[in-house]
Design a protein that fits this description.
Two copies of one chain form a homodimer. Chain A is α+β, with helices and mostly antiparallel strands. Helices cover about 35% and strands about 20% of the residues of chain A. The termini of chain A are far apart. Strand 5 of chain A pairs antiparallel with strand 5 of chain B. The structure holds a DNA duplex.
DNA sequence: TTCATTTTTGTACTCATTACAATACTGATT
DNA sequence: AATCAGTATTGTAATGAGTACAAAAATGAA
């Protein structure tokens, strides 16, 4: 819903401009973890004057406000994700698709060496997704 | 030891040239997870004609042969690591240093949704390292 | 309407990485 | 030792994501 996203932006102290709303709504509406380019291609028709710089600016703002998060996997282009609770990511080595992984809380039981303080964590699993597994059956 | 690395290269079917030996030895001798630039700056005095392209080529060769691995953390420049058994990485948000993390085998008990096949995994922990914790005590 | 502030845009730049062709090296063969 | 093919290394140019920054446009209060 757009009204919901307007509220979210306002709560975060961000003026809900058209560009910001569209970007937030789009990223929230897909599970594809879109890149800046994908966002641009998607919204360019609705906002003909849209510039990539605006997308970069907006994403910086939205990630800073914890309405979105950025995901950088294995040297690939930056991607964006609206799923905010902690979770992992799976990237299919064949098709490149990225899937969210629910994390068993047990997974978080890593004991760091003394003196290290954890703030955040990323877990990336690489392999073959169900679809590519199906296609490659030999 | 250099003789040891010569053997490793030969076993991998890679001709042990000076450039390859020096790069492999250097990465193996440090825990800093060096970047291409760090490798270049280190070896330029010993091999005055060394080019960055050679370093890229060589690292591609050595990672392909599983003598080294590349580590790409959170959009940063590519880094290289001679510690081959599976392990995680800790990056200090203050000083940027990267530390290896031994992984409790328990950590590997993530159940993937059905149809997903795991090939490889990365675990990155972000936070403050012991040294920066010390300095920032308030 | 004016004016300051904020948002958006466009252009130029940075910089890691890759592409590719030219050069240098190596080692076997004659 | 000279030749030569194959390999290794280098240098230059291109790519492309991301950033810096200033100009232009939109907003909204006075």
């Amino acid at each position: 819903m757009n009204t919901e996203n307007i509220l979210l932006l306002k709560e975060a102290g961000i003026k809900p401009s058209l560009v910001r709303l569209k970007i937030l709504s789009f990223v929230k509406s897909v599970t594809s973890h879109p890149t800046v380019d994908m966002i641009y291609k998607e919204l360019a028709s609705e906002i003909p004057t849209l510039s990539r710089t605006s997308i970069y600016n907006t994403l910086l703002l939205l990630t800073g406000a914890r309405l979105l998060r950025s995901v950088s996997i294995d040297g690939d282009v930056m991607r964006f994700d609206a799923t905010m609770p902690d979770h992992g990511h799976f990237r299919c080595s064949e098709c490149g698709q990225i899937f969210d992984l629910n994390l068993d809380p047990q997974t978080h039981n890593i004991v760091l060496p003394s003196g290290f303080k954890e703030i955040r964590r990323d877990l990336f699993v690489y392999g073959k997704c169900p679809y590519c597994n199906k296609c490659d059956e030999n």
